[in-house]
Write a structure and sequence with these properties.
Layout (H helix, E strand, L loop, with lengths): L1 H9 L3 E2 H11 L4 E5 L5 H8 L6 E3 L4 H15 L3 E5 L3 H4 L2 H10 L3 E7 L15 H5 L5 E4 L6 H13 L5 E7 H5 L1 E2 L23 H13 L3 E5 L1 H5 L3 H11 L3 E3 L14 E4 L6 H9 L2 E5 L5 H4 L10 E6 L13 E4 L2 H8 L9 H13 L13 H11 L5 E5 L3 H9 L8 E2 L10 H11 L4 E7 H6 L3 H7 L5 E6 L4 H10 L3 E3 L12 E3 L15 H7 L3 E5 L5 H10 L4 E6 L23
Parallel strand pairs: 2-3, 2-4, 4-5, 5-7, 6-7, 9-10, 9-12, 10-11, 12-13, 13-14, 15-16, 15-17, 17-18, 18-22, 21-22
Antiparallel strand pairs: 1-8, 19-20
Helix pairs in contact: 2-3, 2-8, 4-6, 4-19, 12-15, 13-16, 17-18, 17-24
Length: about 600
């Protein structure tokens, strides 16, 4: 039916809205997140004519729709698409666009715009979206001629998904959507992208020989793998490289899932709250093989002291990242998958047994740990229990931002790429639930769980309505500590435990402000708000769990529920994410307890 509709559209006069929607169909878009408004109505009307080809999901906030598009893209590797109307609808996408830019997520963001004759007049619901988003998109368009639409849409998908992926904005005036052309318009025109290189040329064989020689000479090599491995679908090649060479490997937060945690060479992830053993190993190495990373400040701390005794190889598809934050001895612009394929033909087992033993000793000496004797439910225990229960399930995990995000990275065991979904570069609270919503739409047969904190969760809690109404059975594993936990941790460590607007309950509570002397927030204390009632009000299943003995049963009940579900896990707030390297400091300043 959908094919016939598409064919009929080609044989009649087409509106700009028809051309845009047909382009989405032709680019394989099967899910679209879209919130309508005055200037985007022509597009929504056109979408009703393609209902069998594209599932249009109505979020309850445009930001939720954009994060859902990210969830779709992060879990599948395909381009996520979001549509919003002009003015406030469009500006509500901005945070998610910036988020996608920093994490290199392929997205096409369609924004309706006021008619071309009104642009620049401060018309009702007008915002200059190209100017607003100039610094946070990979590319952007304002389309003023209907005949440009097929080319622009083709270029938008190409740019978003090629090279280093990223978000592309297409701003669409209402009159361009409503105008029409006859069917002689070329709907598959050539692209016009002078100077744009979709992918770098293959890395020269001489460079591969140079890399191989450096690896052979090293006595304390480390692999440092990032989100580029996931985005470049190079996890298989990376694991072959690790197994062939025997080189210990750390990942970034974005790289979690690229290396199975039970690989004997896995040293898990490094950085501010990463494994102490990972950070120490990088400090001690003599060769750092950086693959698809950007030497982010949350990894390096004091950048000049990071891996200061090591020779550095840096491979990245984006040449602007090379030597940007950390100078590399061998900078290589290239597709990390192609480079690893080439290296796997030349490398052999490294003669580094003393180094491997040193790394094993570090791992044994500095494990992730927590107080297993606490009689309530600690966040770390809750996540580890969830991980154990879901180990053999097809589970997808999204997170909000804060302590729970770091504990999820520490205590949930991610065995496959594209199963861990985190706002990493921008650190956007409110990310977890709508991201999970997009994952569930993309992967309807997967178990999708949002591990969230009560602060993050409330920033996009309205998307519970979308989950219920659109039949997306997302599970929310809510670690409810009544506080902005990560900010509290900094207050405790560096600000004499002075509470400054980090308590999320009524201001009459004695923990709401001033110096705190509480060791742990009692898990028996009444919580605000009542998340079970909120979830049930949206039509979702919900329960609260307070006792450690009840946790496993509550998790299994959550998983078994046929629709969306919120499990409110009451946890203490006086709990810190450790280890911790304070901002701008070095691994030698790491706080371990």
């Amino acid at each position: 039916m959908s094919t016939a509709k598409a064919a009929n559209t080609e044989n009649r006069v087409m509106t700009g809205a028809d051309i845009i929607v047909k382009s989405l169909v032709d680019h394989g878009v099967d899910v679209l997140f879209a919130y309508p408004g005055g200037c985007s109505m022509p597009l929504h009307q056109a979408l009703t004519r393609y209902g069998d080809s594209i599932r249009t999901i109505l979020p309850r906030h445009e930001q939720g729709g954009a994060f859902a598009a990210q969830g779709y893209a992060r879990s599948t590797g395909r381009v996520g698409v979001v549509l919003a109307t002009s003015g406030p609808g469009a500006t509500n996408l901005v945070t998610a666009i910036a988020d996608a830019k920093l994490d290199s997520i392929p997205m096409v963001c369609l924004t309706a715009q006021v008619p071309t004759r009104a642009i620049g007049s401060d018309a009702f619901q007008e915002t200059p979206m190209v100017e607003v988003c100039r610094g946070i998109t990979k590319h952007h368009y304002l389309v003023t001629d209907i005949r440009e639409l097929p080319r622009v849409m083709k270029e938008a998908f190409h740019i978003a998904s090629s090279g280093r992926p990223g978000p592309v904005l297409v701003d669409l005036p209402k009159d361009v959507q409503l105008s029409d052309v006859t069917s002689d318009l070329d709907l598959d025109p050539p692209m016009n992208l002078p100077g744009y290189e979709a992918a770098p040329p293959p890395v020269a064989s001489e460079t591969i020989r140079q890399l191989t020689a450096a690896i052979r000479l090293a006595r304390r090599p480390m692999i440092y793998a990032g989100g580029g491995i996931i985005l470049g679908n190079a996890s298989e090649e990376l694991n072959e490289f690790i197994n062939k060479t025997g080189i210990p490997t750390v990942t970034t937060v974005m790289g979690i899932g690229a290396v199975p945690p039970d690989n004997e060479n896995s040293m898990d992830w490094l950085g501010m709250h990463g494994a102490a053993y990972a950070n120490y190993a990088v400090r001690d190495c003599d060769l750092l093989i950086a693959l698809g990373v950007r030497f982010d400040d949350r990894v390096t701390g004091k950048v000049e002291a990071f891996a200061k005794d090591a020779k550095i190889i840096h491979v990245d598809i984006d040449g602007s990242e090379l030597n940007k934050n950390k100078e590399a001895h061998i900078p290589v612009r290239g597709d990390v998958k192609q480079v690893l394929n080439a290296l796997n033909k030349t490398v052999t087992k490294c003669d580094i047994e003393p180094w491997r033993e040193h790394c094993k000793e570090l791992k044994a000496k500095y494990p992730f740990k927590y107080d297993t004797e606490f009689d309530g439910i600690l966040q770390q225990h809750a996540i580890r229990t969830l991980s154990d229960i879901t180990a053999d399930m097809d589970a997808q995990i999204s997170v909000g931002v804060g302590q729970h995000q770091m504990w999820a990275a520490q205590f949930y065991r991610f065995r496959r790429p594209r199963t861990w979904h985190s706002s990493s570069g921008l650190g956007t609270m409110g990310f977890g639930l709508p991201c999970a919503m997009g994952i569930q739409a993309a992967l309807p047969d997967s178990l999708v769980i949002d591990i969230d904190g009560d602060g993050s969760f409330q920033m996009n809690v309205q998307e519970l309505a979308t989950c219920f109404c659109e039949e997306l059975p997302v599970k929310v594993f809510l670690l409810n500590n009544q506080h902005l936990g990560m900010v509290v941790q900094w207050e405790d460590r560096f600000m004499d435990r002075n509470r400054a607007h980090t308590y999320l309950g009524p201001i009459s509570h004695n923990e709401a402000s001033g110096n705190s002397d509480a060791e742990r927030f009692s898990y028996a204390t009444e919580r605000y708000p009542d998340f079970v009632k909120i979830a049930q009000g949206y039509g979702c299943g919900a329960a609260t769990v307070r006792k450690k003995a009840d946790l496993e049963g509550a998790i299994r009940e959550m998983i078994a529920h046929p629709g969306p579900y919120v499990l409110d896990v009451e946890v203490p707030y006086q709990e810190h994410v450790l280890p911790m390297i304070p901002g701008g400091m070095t691994v030698d300043d790491m706080i371990l307890q």
